[in-house]
């Protein structure tokens, strides 16, 4: 249902995976359980939980996680890179996905590990060879994403699989804002330990969301639940054990993850 904020979660001590939507009761923010998944109709069951009583899971189980590099000109410049002529697409393994609240594990041997706050798109139906003007019709919704990156390994390897692919290097959540329209979405803001470090306007993307989806669908069949992260604005920087990193988009919510060394 367009406009709903949809999640997947469990209650500690129970462990049962549940679906829910954002709600309020008596002024308190809550997760309202629903029957049915995000790709079809669902109904509220009448059960609800305080946000602090649940643990969020990635809202979908994608087959593929696509990411786009250098999609903000200022970010490309801050790392000494040029802006690409077409979307620069790479993959992260699905094993890198974690939900909001789960710890990002920083491999201490790998050098500098950066946050990269991003807006991501969840695909809602199987599709291939979409035109740009029809691409948003295939969108299930929008979600906050953190493309955590081992920066020194990225430079060393020349290709990005290892630097981007560690377990826990793709926090996503907590909610999917259902619907293909981006109207009502505010700026992307990343904070580390409560201090703002990134702010990006989606109008500043080199390649807009529709163009990105169309481009990827020209070479790959997109499936329901697939994730497409749309790039990070300027301001990337290192994470350290004990940090908490938050990616916030007005209209969606706040993805929050602590960091620990490993």
Automatic annotation (TrEMBL):
A molecular function GO annotation: metal ion binding
Q: Please tell me whether the keyword Metal-binding is annotated for this protein.
A: yes
The record places domain Rv2993c-like N-terminal at 5-59
Q: What biological process terms from GO does the record include? A: carboxylic acid metabolic process
- Superkingdom of the organism of origin: Bacteria
The alphabetical list of record keywords is: Metal-binding
Annotated ranges, domain Fumarylacetoacetase-like C-terminal: 65-258
Q: Which Pfam families match?
A: FAA_hydrolase (PF01557), Rv2993c-like_N (PF10370)
InterPro entries per record: Fumarylacetoacetase-like_C, Fumarylacetoacetase_C_sf, Rv2993c-like_N
**Which Gene3D superfamilies does this UniProt record tie to the protein?**
FAH, Fumarylacetoacetase-like, C-terminal domain
Q: What is this protein called?
A: 2-keto-4-pentenoate hydratase/2-oxohepta-3-ene-1,7-dioic acid hydratase
């Amino acid at each position: 249902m367009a406009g709903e904020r949809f999640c997947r979660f469990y209650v500690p001590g129970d462990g049962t995976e549940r679906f829910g939507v954002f709600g309020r009761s008596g002024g308190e923010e809550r997760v309202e359980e629903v029957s049915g998944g995000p790709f079809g109709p669902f109904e509220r069951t009448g059960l609800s939980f305080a946000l602090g009583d649940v643990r969020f899971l990635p809202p979908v189980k994608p087959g593929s996680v696509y990411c786009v590099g250098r999609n903000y000109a200022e970010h490309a410049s801050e790392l000494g890179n040029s802006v690409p002529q077409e979307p620069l697409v790479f993959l992260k393994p699905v094993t890198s996905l974690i939900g909001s609240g789960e710890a990002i594990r920083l491999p201490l041997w790998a050098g500098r590990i950066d946050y990269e706050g991003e807006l991501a798109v969840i695909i809602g139906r199987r599709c291939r060879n979409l035109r740009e003007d029809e691409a948003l019709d295939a969108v299930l919704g929008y979600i906050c994403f953190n493309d955590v990156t081992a920066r020194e390994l990225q430079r060393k390897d020349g290709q990005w699989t290892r630097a981007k692919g560690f377990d826990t290097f793709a926090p996503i959540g907590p909610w999917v804002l259902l619907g293909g329209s981006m109207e009502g979405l505010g700026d992307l803001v990343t904070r580390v330990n409560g201090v703002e470090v990134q702010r990006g306007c989606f109008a500043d993307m080199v390649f807009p969301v529709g163009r990105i989806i169309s481009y990827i669908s020209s070479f790959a069949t997109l499936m329901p639940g697939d994730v497409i992260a749309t790039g990070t604005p300027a301001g990337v920087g290192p994470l350290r054990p004990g940090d908490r990193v938050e990616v916030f988009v007005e209209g969606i919510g706040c993805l929050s993850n602590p960091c620990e060394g490993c």
